[in-house]
Structure formats: C-alpha cells, structure tokens
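User: I'm writing a short report section on ligand binding and want a predicted complex to refer to. Could you take this sequence and nicotinamide-adenine-dinucleotide and write out the structure as tokens? A short remark afterwards would be nice.
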Amino acid sequence: MQRITILGATGSIGVSTLDVLARHPDKYRVYALSAHSRVEELAAQCAQFRPERAVVGTAEAAQRLAALLAEQGVRTEVEYGEAALCAIASSAGTDTVMAAIVGAAGLAPTLAAARAGKKILLANKEALVMSGQLFMDAVQAHGATLLPIDSEHNAIFQSLPQSYARSPKAAGVAKILLTASGGPFLKRAVETLENVTPAEACKHPNWEMGRKISVDSATMMNKGLEVIEAHWLFGAPASLIEVVIHPQSVIHSMVSYTDGSVIAELGNPDMRTPIANALAFPERIESGVAQLDLTVVGTLQFEKPDFKRFPCLALAFEALEAGGTAPALLNAANEVAVEAFLDSRIGFREIDRVIARVMHENPHGAASSIDAVMAQDAHARRAAAGIIAGQAR
Ligand code: NAD
Ligand code: MG
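Assistant: Sure. The structure tokens for the complex follow:
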C-alpha cells in the first residue's frame, strides 16, 4: 500500500489525483488532504477517502471543517496553517506527496517533503521555479524521488532513458522540445488582447485547469515557467530547450537525440495520464483516460512561438539566463499581476508590463538560501502591488 498526501486536494490536479486513486483502492491509501478555503469540497473528500489528517488555511476554516466532519461521523484530524501542511508532507505516515498547491504557497510543504526523503509528484511548478538548485539539492541530499506531473515534463521524463542522470550530453540529447498549445489567444488579433476578459483568458481550448494556470497559459507565462522547470528537472541549459507550438496538445513534448531520433509521448489531453504514470512508476495502471485515436485527431500541427505576441515567454527565458533569484522575482510578479487581472483591477496586457517593470527595476541576487528566495519573493510582490496600484483602472 502506497500512502499518499495530497497538497491542494480540492484543485483541478487534486481532484484528478483522487479520481485515479479511487480506481485502485488495493494499491493506494490517502493519508492526508489539504485545501485552502473550499471546506465543503474537502469535507466530501474526507467522507469518501477517510484520510487520517486534513489541513486548511485558517482556524475559522478548520472549525467549519471539523463541524462538517463531526456531523457525518468522519474521524479525520483537522489542522490548519503552513506548519501543518509541512507536517502532512513530511510525516512518517506518508510515502508519496502530490504537490498540487498553486503558486509560491506550495514551496514550504513541497520542500518539507523533499527534506523528509519522500516520493514527490510535482505539479506545483512555481515551487521549483523559485527555488531551483536549492530544491534539487534537497531532493538529492535527502534521497527524495522527484517525478514530474506537468504533462510536458512527464512526457519528457517518459521520452528519456530510465537511467537518465540529469546530463543531456551523456544521454545523447540534442534538444528538449517543449510543446505548447498556444492557449486561447494564439490566433486572436494582437491589438485586441488589451480587452481580453478573465472569462476569455480562462477558457483554454484543450485543458481544464485552475484559474491561475489558465491565465498563465493565455499569456504563455506557463510555458516560460515550464522552460525553467525543465532546466532544473533535466539539467538542461536554456539553449537546449525549444518551445514548439502544437495547438492539438496531443504530443505532450519530445526529446530529440543526436542520431536524429525524436521520441515523443502522445495521448488525449487529460492530467490523469501523467498522474497515473507518476503514481505507478515504473509500472502502469489504468487512469480512466480514453485511448488516443489518431484517426479522429487527423492532423497534428506545429509552429514557432511568436515572442512579440507572448512577451511573458521572453521574460521567462530572460529570468532563466539571469539566474539567482531572478526566476523568483518573475514568478512573484506574475502571481500578483495574474491575481489583479482575475480581479479586473488591470487589463490582460498589463500582466506582462507589470512583470517586465518588476524585473527591470529591481535587482536580483544569489539564490543562496530559501530565506533569500522568500525575501526576493516578498520584495517582488510589494513592487508589483505598487505598480498595479499606480495604474489601476
Ligand atoms: P487550482 O487552483 O485548481 O487548485 C489549487 C489548490 O491549491 C487548491 O486545492 C487550493 O485549495 C490550494 N491552494 C490555493 N492557494 C493556497 C494557499 N495559499 N495555501 C495552501 N493551499 C492553497 O490549481 P490547479 O490547476 O490544480 O494547479 C495546481 C498546480 O499544478 C499549479 O502549480 C499548476 O501550475 C500545476 N499544474 C496544473 C495543471 C492542470 O491541468 N490543472 C497542469 C500542470 C501543472
Ligand atoms: Mg504543462
């Protein structure tokens, strides 16, 4: 029995994970679940999966959850706050941690799982983007196992040899080809992007996702964060990572080898595939995803990304090249700008302008410690909030 903690159980990835787990009660047991504010959903999940522990964001939410569980006679222990998240991620009671909190809020518990030597299923790309080398060092030092859930990175992971040791050269890798759908605005007239609404930005053509990552997909910051994620996961310099627009999202990414071979992973766009892959690795389990029928898909298309249409992609490459705490600066500015956009406080195109200003007006430093990264994150959030307050509609 693999015992599992899900950080961010009520989100899109959390719900898909529970869907896969429910298909294999003989293999997996839920140890703990967390949610930030969706207490009713978490209560229903606790009633179904009977975890030992559940963690929410605040004392008030914990009280409400405890009351709901008591009504149903569910004996899950209720806790709240960041220390409790770190505790369920590092407890001796769990083997595997699904890191599916969105944004920087997931860094501390995901790092706690690494330091406890857990098997980490990483969806929370922002945590790795922020902490980069420090996170990879913690994984190595504590004997943790890191498996990518992001569909592109899971595809790359499946397309590399199982013995891959973060050295593209040794494995004969010529290029990592990171595919991108291009999001909802791939073909929309650039001048009209100023007027995009949150609802339009969240309507992704191929994937059902949380609101933050949906906006990131519309700006292509998501792909930018994924370039940085791929750099750390696979030990690949930026020059080896190429973004390819592939609107059908059937090829989830590819590895191009020096002998001319290209290995790809294909499938229907459904996150239960990478989740099942990482849960069962190196075995295979049923995920609930329908088999891919290429004759129904018919055509696969590819094109180069337009960095002028998607300035966030260029900003992410810039942050990766700059190194140190620059990716943390980028990520924090993006989180603040996306939230302001979703609240209709700024327009869609302000997102990249805010991030560019935060990056270019604030120095970054060495990512010498998690404290240094968190200080950069806090500083970037204040800077972004200041810029947004100055130009709010
Ligand atoms: P979501 O918004 O649907 O869910 C986020 C989860 O995080 C929720 O359970 C929420 O309760 C929790 N959460 C939010 N803020 C929190 C906070 N401050 N403290 C603690 N918990 C908090 O997001 P999602 O789409 O499931 O994405 C989760 C992560 O997975 C993101 O990092 C995203 O980039 C990554 N990811 C998602 C997909 C996808 O298809 N949805 C694909 C690849 C990667
Ligand atoms: Mg992805």
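A remark for your report: Residues 156-297 form one domain. The pocket of nicotinamide-adenine-dinucleotide (ligand 1) is lined by residues 8-14, 35-36, 38, 57, 100-102, 105, 123-126, 150, 207, 209-210, 212-213, 271 (CB under 6 Å).
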